[in-house]
Every structure is written in C-alpha cells, then in structure tokens.
What we know:
Elements: H1 19-36, E1 43-47, H2 55-58, E2 64-69, H3 72-85, E3 90-94, E4 107-113, H4 122-131, E5 133-144, H5 165-174, E6 178-192, E7 195-207
Amino acid sequence: MSQQLRDxxxxxxxxxxxPRRVLLASAVSEAIIRxxxxxxxxxxxxxxxxTGLVTLALAPLVQEMVAADSSQGMLEQLGAKLxxxxxxxxxxxxxxxxxxVTLPGPFDLxxxxxxxxxxxxxxxxxxxxHAAMRSGGQLCIADLESEDGSFHDDPTGIYHNGFSVAEMxxxxxxxxxxxxxxxxxxxxxxxxEGAIREYPVNLTLGVA
Length: 208
C-alpha cells in the first residue's frame, strides 16, 4: 500500500460532481440520523469532513458542527457553501497532516465517513476520539467493508482496503467505547473488469 498522502486539494473543486459520492454521503447521513439521533443540544465533530456533504446534512439538526479536514482546498469548498447558504453553526477546522491529532472537544457526537481507510493508525485515533468525547457521547464511523483493493482507482494514501466488522468494532472497544454495533448502509457499485462489483459500506456505532 502507498504511504504517500493523496492531494485532496487538487480534486476539491470537482469532488461533489461524482453522483455516487453524493449518494453515499446521503445514505451515511440518513443512517447516522436514524441511529444516533442528533439533536439541538449536541456539539458534533465531522472528522474528514471534505466538502461537507455529511456536515451539511447534520448541521440543521444540532447546536454546532465542527468540520475537520486536513485539506485546505476541501475546507474552502465547504466555506463557500456555508457562505452561500448563510449557515452559521458550522466551524471549519484544519487538521495537521503530520503529528498527533488535536481536536477542539468536547463533543457529544463524532462522525466520520470514508476517512478511516486513509488513516495509518486508526487505533490511536480512536483513543483521541474517546478523549474528546463527553461521557455518554456517540461515535459513528462509516467505511468500506474489507475488499480486495480494487475499490479505489488510485491507491495513493490508502492504508486499509476496508475493514472487517470485527476489526472495526475492535478499534471501538479497545478505545473504551461500549454498546458497539454495526449496520450496513449501502453497497457502492463500480464497473470492474467488464462487470459491476458491489462494495458494502458499514456504519459502526459506539458510546463513550
């Protein structure tokens, strides 16, 4: 697997032009809303927020959203959306590419969609999530089920070819989360070698 960083700044301006990507973000957002029940008392972190596809689905339901991403280009796209829509309860937050992750907690809910496979050491990050969480807060992580490496056209910056349910739930439990469970959100369909392949995406939830 590549140990290089993917240049998300280079693709930020056209990120939302992929219908499959928008559809997946919508499905993940709906699953989070249905299962975590975000409400107006909550301060929420979207880790790896990108252009804000999940952030903007949750923002009307909560008190405050922090949209964290390491790509300045992605956050600029989100900032333009916020300005256009007059949204004031979303705070973009730039993450460092290297070094320990520092989060502006505490949070009642932390969500992340299709980001963990870009993280070299998810176990350490889950501990950071737990430390940034209010007691009783929820963590919701959506990512690919284990696959053979064919999902991504470009493997740059991919550290994991998805995660088995046991592996992902293990990260939760090892970091101190309880009541851990996993549901399938949808399957992403992609053309591969003349056939349509389906890649399941799961949402795993736990309570701090």
